Amino acid sequence: MKIMKRPYPPEQDHHFDDDEEFMESGGLLHFEPANNDLWPWIKETFLHEWAALHNPDHEHLLSLDIPDISFLWAYNTCEAKEKRVLGQTEKVMINVGGWKKSRQEVQYIEWFGDVPDFLITLDARVCQVMSDVDFMALIEHELYHIGHKRNKNTGEFEYTSMGEPRLFLRGHDVEEFHGVVQRYGASPDVQKMVELANNGPTISRANIAHACGTCLLKLA
Q1: What pTM was computed for the model?
Q2: How far apart are CA 68 and CA 70, in angstroms?
Q3: Which of 105, 117, 140, 154 has the fewest CB atoms lying closer than 10 Å?
């Protein structure tokens, strides 16, 4: 089955080696909404049953739609714990009280038309030059951060009164998500990852050395 063309972040008029050079030039920090490019590609590539690279681990995300889940390209770098962050998944939390709440809501509405439940931000400059496989591994890594809650007693998945999955922001299985390792390959130190890697990736081998802001910033 043919895979949808991979989305790329829009190219900017000027290119800088680092943020210091960017700011010295008088440039402003810049973000671009990516909903129209990324979400259709993600659904057609990973979520639908007929998707060429369908991953059942993400099926609960089909309950989401724009703007429940939204995406941003970030053109300035972000660092945490001395690592460059290439992707970050957030459960959107609005600060209460006066202008703080209104200011944040207005920004999201200007970007996406509404306030999303989850936001995934990606380093645009790195994604522009990433290989297809590394880009897919990064995207799937961030998607794995949106988990489907299970009942603590029964272990069954939980649903709302409307029949929709109860979602939460989850951390890594160990140092990486088992599903990412199984599909793209890795060289982890823990035995579970070694077993999955030895079985061979089901898609291709990728370099899972990217930094995840969700984990580095301890949001999960």
Answers
A1: 0.79
A2: 7
A3: 154
